[in-house]
Specification:
Organism: Prunus persica
CATH superfamily of the largest domain: Apoptosis, Tumor Necrosis Factor Receptor Associated Protein 2, Chain A
Structural class: mainly beta
Distance between the termini: 33 Å
Protein name: MATH domain-containing protein
Pfam families: MATH_2
Domain MATH: 21-158, 180-305
Radius of gyration: 23 Å
Helix content: under 10%
Low-confidence stretches: 162-166
CATH topology of the largest domain: Apoptosis, Tumor Necrosis Factor Receptor Associated Protein 2, Chain A
Order of helices and strands: EEEHEEEEEEEEHEEEEEEEEEEHE
Number of strands: 22
Mean pLDDT: 84
Strand content: over 45%
CATH class of the largest domain: Mainly Beta
Number of helices: 3
CATH architecture of the largest domain: Sandwich
InterPro entries: MATH/TRAF_dom (IPR002083), TRAF-like (IPR008974)
Length: 314
């Protein structure tokens, strides 16, 4: 068993509790996926939950918050969501407790301010939390009960003016042996289209239904200069509110003459709003006859999509 040694003077108390968190529970069924596919800053943000009349998120750094020189611990913070909608001058005093389930005993490790001081949030400070929740080595040791079969459970309680509200829960699921699905969209009589946006037929990938949206004259900051292209959920109404899909994707315009295709690729947590590029390819490059992107007024678009995981409300 890896030793659970905590800093004695880090200002954090760590009692145990038999009671689950009041406001929010996040069940992670593929922690290794979270570690591998966090943002460029190394973080993952949970869905929103309500407490004390405000909306909140948990921000995880599964490999430690590098901005605070943390490398050997998990870092977790509470973040106020939707702060831009609040008045210019606002302050919120709150008590925050973080929970981590010991799956071997059914008890929760509870992290809270050792001095029980309320923390004041304002526009210049939207987060509070713990730089060093638990050593990574101890967390990864299944005998300690916090990470078992790549699964773990975190929770949170936030008390604003001693107000309690009903909680929400979220589940992050990974897809083992995720397969890549390819879809080819043939657009004929391309120049004859008068619509601002072209949409492909729906296609399936990773248990989700998708479609490609193409703007021949560009959209957003690519309007008038670029072709814009996006991958979008075809049935967003079937997703739970706030759901995020970890999607690895490639969007490609086929060079029908030289096989030197133009493509973009990425991997990111996406919502029902879609993912892609407003500045995908310049209109000048796209329309060049020698490039083969338009041959006999026909354009071929390819999409390769792999779904690695889904975060959704329970």
């Amino acid at each position: 068993m890896a030793s659970l040694m905590f800093g004695q003077h880090d200002g954090v108390s760590r009692p145990f509790s038999d009671s689950p968190p009041t406001h929010y529970t996040l069940k992670i069924e593929a922690f290794s996926l979270l570690k591998k596919h966090s943002t460029s800053e190394g973080s993952f943000e949970s869905g929103k939950f309500d407490a004390g009349g405000y909306k909140w998120k948990l921000v995880f750094y599964p490999n430690g918050n590098k901005k605070k020189n943390v490398e050997d611990h998990i870092s977790v913070y509470l973040k106020m969501a939707g702060a831009n909608s609040l008045e210019t001058r606002w302050e919120v005093s709150a008590d925050f407790r973080l929970f981590l389930l010991d799956q071997n005993t059914g008890k929760y490790l509870v992290l809270q301010d050792a001095n029980l001081n309320k923390i004041c949030l304002h526009r210049a400070m939207l987060e509070m939390g713990f730089d060093r929740v638990i050593p990574l080595k101890a967390f990864a040791d299944a005998s300690n009960g916090y990470l078992v079969d790549d699964k773990c459970v975190f929770g949170a309680e936030v008390f604003v003016c001693k107000e309690r509200r009903a909680g929400k829960a979220e589940c992050l699921s990974g897809i083992n042996s995720a397969s890549t699905n390819k879809y080819v969209w043939k657009i004929e009589k391309f120049s004859k289209s008068k619509t601002e946006c072209l949409e492909s037929q729906p296609f399936n990938a990773g248990g989700q239904t998708w479609k490609i949206k193409l703007y021949p004259k560009g959209a957003d900051n690519g309007k008038g200069t670029h072709v814009s292209i996006y991958l979008k959920c075809a049935n967003p109404e079937k997703l739970s509110p706030g759901s995020q899909i970890l999607t690895e994707f490639t969007l490609r315009i086929v060079d029908q003459l030289n096989a030197k295709h133009f493509y973009g690729k990425g991997i990111q947590w996406s919502s029902a709003l879609g993912i892609g590029w407003s500045n995908f390819i310049t209109l000048g490059n796209f329309n060049r006859l020698d490039k083969g992107y338009l041959l006999k007024d026909t354009c071929l678009i390819e999409a390769e999509v792999t779904v690695h995981g889904i975060a959704k409300a329970l």
